[in-house]
Amino acid sequence: MSFLELLKQSRAQASELIEKRKVDIDGDGQKHPAQYFTGLDEKTKREREAEIERRQEEGVKGPELYEDLPGDEDAETEPSKHTKTEWAKKIRDEIKGPGKDEFIRAASKVSGVSRSIIEEVYDKGLKAFATSGHRPGASATGWAVARVYAFLFDPKSGARKVDQHLWDKHEENQKSILKPIYNIKQEIVKSLKFALKQTKNKYHTPKLQKNANRLLKNDKLYLSDFEYCFNELKHRNDSKRLDFWLLGGEAMLQLQKYLKIGITLNQALEMPYEEKNEK
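Above: the chain's sequence. Below: its structure in token form.
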């Protein structure tokens, strides 16, 4: 069997598995994800399917779209796996108040994806909740938030695949940013280069200068390359001193913070640099 034939067979099997996860309770040819009927009795399943199809066929608009479906009222749903990730927790920690706009602001800050793209994904989540059905007991807001998490942080999710064009747009936006420093690795490099230029005119520790030059010359960086900086920064936290910048400055502190919560070095170096506002 050729590779192409094997690929076609694999795709056919995958499609078959997906179809098996869909159900047509009333036998009218319209299928829906089986998870949208989990835990319900047959009567409620039929009523729920009929209401989903009515909303789709009649083009229902307004508040009615978000009213409970049969089976929602007494059901409890398990939170989406996408809400349990470390990234989702970071967004929740960043949120400073209620509402859609604040969630989108926090998600944008943590992920580096523009608010307009996140809002489009969020709104699609609301629309999908209302017109395509949802797990019993789920809320419209919860459905939209979970879709945003999936889009932002799970490349294999249905949300990313459906809105791949929006992710492509995000990546194009990143390439076109005029500001060249936008992740931690680049900000550390910027800090080191800036500091080394100042060493000719200002007091500094020669050992720190040597370490800065070594970091800049290394193409492959390992955790051990940063340990010296982390240890020295414990005693040098004055952002106005040259020694602080020779050690990588605020970006180096952010790198250490991410490593402490279990993010790998390569991932942490590519994370967005959060500029510290000096008052």
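The longest strand covers residues 22-23.
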